[in-house]
Design brief:
heterodimer; A: about 350 residues; mainly alpha; 12 helices; globular; B: about 375 residues; Cytochrome-c3 Hydrogenase, chain B
Chain lengths: ~350, ~375
């Protein structure tokens, strides 16, 4: 009873709380990193060095007026933010944060669930979120959100293919769809898959940027072109849902990258005896370090690069990334058969 | 039965979209009515007048000195060159001799203004394309120019810093050293912008072959300033009809080849270097002497009319003044603002491109709505 119901329940609450707090502080981190790149200070007023700024932001979003445009499709308009946010949060169910530990004589796993099709679950759940963006833009019954949701649907679907192709190579190497199994495979092989599959890792990173609508692929919400993109007509908490989902998706993409390519909770080079002291750092700390490292690159890219244009983005996706990803699958398969 | 009308489920209407006057990247209150086919722009109709303050008509009821501060409010990010164009027009009408020292100071000020204006253009143009960091880098250096202006005349935006016949104040002691120090700082920062933009693949893809305009078309539509030079037309009022102390300065006029957005970017970037070159020569060569010529206390030019143009940062800024010889205010006052003329080319540039290119093209013609609407 305790191990089957209470422990998972506590895990779910802990992970959900941790994710939401991380999202709040990723926003602050983004503003700070961007400010430092741009020789500014960033938020400084709420708390020392703006440390309480996320709380103020959330409070502001809570008390904002919630507006539904008169001509909007009310039901779809209401449900769209939920469709975006929920998949972003439930994707965390299969992500292994640590190898698990024993506490008070109980075996506490380092993840909520170890599904044997964990990777497939993440791919399918991530696909659902796109519907929310399309529906949100379309149900607003407004021109700019409509253009943005057209862009979003085309962009997300095409990059989904490239990203999924890179995941196929990981499955080929590890022989399992279980997230825990993939980390174990990296331990057994002694190499992170990022070293064994640098091309797949690169494509996954670019595709990840595009899938989370981050610069330089942030076309669906290109402020300078489409005002605020698909969420132009949203305000208050409903806008906050889109906002939360975007950052939660960033964390999902980073966590998946950490698990699939950077060895999850493993210390760097776990099989090299000279580096065994790195094992003293607990697994969840390694996981967080790698995930935040990946997230930092997201923020860094945003502060550096201009934005792609819609057609160029599609060209990059269909003419370069997808063929390259397929070629990578073929080459990986050949090497696997030959050696 | 054959029918030409498309099936109702494939409705292919044009989408008319209103860009502005409230929009993040129309640089003020420009309103563009865009006709879209998907994301492709079929037609573009700029609607102006949201910032009209009647400066020209107002000037006909103000005396000649008061008009100087009205000119500040036209291109409000390049007030010094606006002042210069106006005071020189009245000096021309009067045939007033301006002391050489004043002409040198004017040259320094107007080139500093060009640097400040181009910095703001660079920042906003890059920000429109999504490169936000360049905006902050540009504003950082622009601040230094504003500090120099503040030390010279006390104001940071609307300077009101020239008078008919000369300069109102002399350069403060040590100012020339600070100007030279700024030139060094600015020179050292230019590679930073270039690193972020010039060789950046995304920036090149976003700007190359976007909004191409040939030399003949550019002349035909009345482009002026850097956009005209980017199409390969050698036209710079500073060289063709030198004013202030430009005849004594050594500088080159950068020209573009293809006349696309990338060339316009390169031309303006090179103008930074040429401006710094002029500032260095002018500030080191400021001669001794008076700063004010023999201008009468009450400005009342003889009857007649005159047109005078200068090379403002955004292009050829011209003033046309008619004096009846009896009144202390002009009989007719008319401005030829470079922004308005460059805006005329926008529909031609935009047609056939995508929505994302529209913001790139608004940025590349570098307009200020205060000057378009007056």
């Amino acid at each position: 009873m305790v191990e089957t119901v209470i422990v998972p329940l506590i895990m779910i609450v802990t992970v959900l709380a941790a994710v939401l707090v991380t999202v709040m502080y990723i926003v602050l981190l983004e503003r700070k990193v961007q400010a430092w790149v741009q020789v500014r200070l960033g938020p400084m007023r709420v708390g020392p060095h703006g440390i309480l700024q996320p709380l103020a932001d959330v409070l502001k979003l809570f008390i904002k007026e919630d507006i539904t445009p008169v001509r909007a499709d009310k039901w779809v308009f209401t449900v769209a933010p939920i469709i975006v946010l929920v998949p972003a949060l439930i994707a965390f169910a299969v992500i292994p944060f640590a190898s698990g530990l024993s506490l008070f004589g109980m075996n506490i796993p380092g993840r909520i669930a170890d599904v044997n099709v964990g990777l497939l679950y993440i791919i399918s759940v991530a696909g659902i979120g796109i519907y929310g963006i399309i529906l949100g833009g379309w149900s607003s019954n407004s021109k700019y959100p409509l253009l943005a949701s057209l862009r979003a649907s085309a962009q997300l679907i095409s990059y989904e293919i490239a990203v999924t192709m890179t995941l196929v190579t990981v499955i080929m190497l590890s022989g399992t769809l279980s997230m825990v199994g993939i980390v174990d495979a990296q331990l057994a092989k002694g190499w992170w898959f990022a070293f064994m599959q640098p091309v797949a890792f690169g494509i996954y990173f670019i595709g990840g940027l595009a899938e989370t609508n981050r610069a330089p692929f942030d076309l669906p919400e290109a402020e300078q072109e489409l005002v605020a993109g698909f969420h132009t007509e949203y305000s208050g908490m409903r806008f906050a849902f889109f906002f939360l989902a975007e950052y939660a998706n960033m964390i999902v993409v980073s966590s998946v990258a950490t698990t699939l390519f950077l060895g999850g909770w493993l210390a760097p080079f776990p099989n090299v005896p000279a580096l065994s002291f790195l094992g003293l750092v607990p697994g969840w700390a390694w996981f967080m370090l790698k995930t935040f490292g990946f997230l930092y690159v997201f923020l860094w890219v945003r502060a550096t690069l201009p934005r792609y244009r819609y057609d160029q983005l599609m060209r990059l996706g269909w003419k370069w990334l997808i063929p390259l990803a397929i070629l990578n699958v073929v080459v990986t398969g050949l090497l696997k058969v030959l050696f | 039965m054959h029918t030409d009308t498309p099936l109702p489920m494939f409705d292919t209407d044009e989408l008319v979209i209103n860009m502005g006057p409230q929009h993040p990247s129309t640089h003020g209150v420009l309103r563009l009515v865009l006709k879209l086919d998907g994301e492709r722009v079929i037609d573009c109709d700029p609607v102006i007048g949201y910032l009209h303050r009647g400066i020209e008509k107002l000037s006909e009821n103000r005396d000649y000195t008061q008009i100087i501060l009205l000119t500040d409010r036209m291109d409000y990010v390049a007030a010094a060159t606006n002042n210069l164009g106006y005071v020189q027009t009245i000096e021309k009408l009067y045939s007033l001799e301006v002391p050489r020292r004043a002409r040198y100071i004017r040259t320094v000020l107007s080139e500093l203004q060009r640097v400040a204006s181009h910095l703001l253009w660079l920042g906003t143009h890059a920000a429109d394309l999504g490169a936000l960091t360049v905006l902050l880098f540009g504003l950082r250096e622009r601040e230094l120019v504003l500090d120099l202006f503040e030390e010279y005349c006390g104001a940071r935006l609307t300077y009101n810093t020239m008078r008919i016949g000369g300069q109102p104040v002399d350069v403060p002691p040590g100012w020339d050293k600070k100007v030279l120090a700024f030139c060094d700082v600015q020179e050292s920062k230019l590679p930073e912008y270039e690193q972020l933009l010039t060789g950046n693949r995304i920036f090149m893809e976003r700007t190359k072959d976007i909004g191409v305009i040939t030399a003949a078309d550019a002349i035909g539509v009345g482009l002026c300033g850097p956009p005209l030079r980017a199409s390969g037309v050698y036209r710079d009022v500073r060289k063709d009809e030198p004013y202030a102390a430009y005849d004594e300065m050594e500088f080159d006029v950068p020209l573009g080849v293809r006349g696309d957005t990338y060339d316009r970017y390169l031309v303006r970037l090179e103008e930074f270097r040429q401006s710094l070159r002029i500032i260095r020569q002018a500030v080191q060569g400021i001669p001794e002497g008076p700063i004010m010529g023999k201008a009468p206390r009450l400005i009342k030019p003889p009857a007649g009319e005159t047109y005078h143009a200068i090379e403002a940062p955004k292009g050829e800024l011209g003033y046309f003044v008619v004096s009846d010889g009896k009144s202390v205010s002009p009989y007719r006052f008319r401005v030829r603002p470079p922004s308005l003329c460059n805006l005329q080319a926008l529909p031609q540039l935009v047609r056939g491109h995508l929505v994302a290119d529209v913001v790139a093209l608004i940025g590349t013609i570098d307009i200020v709505l205060g000057e378009v609407d007056r």
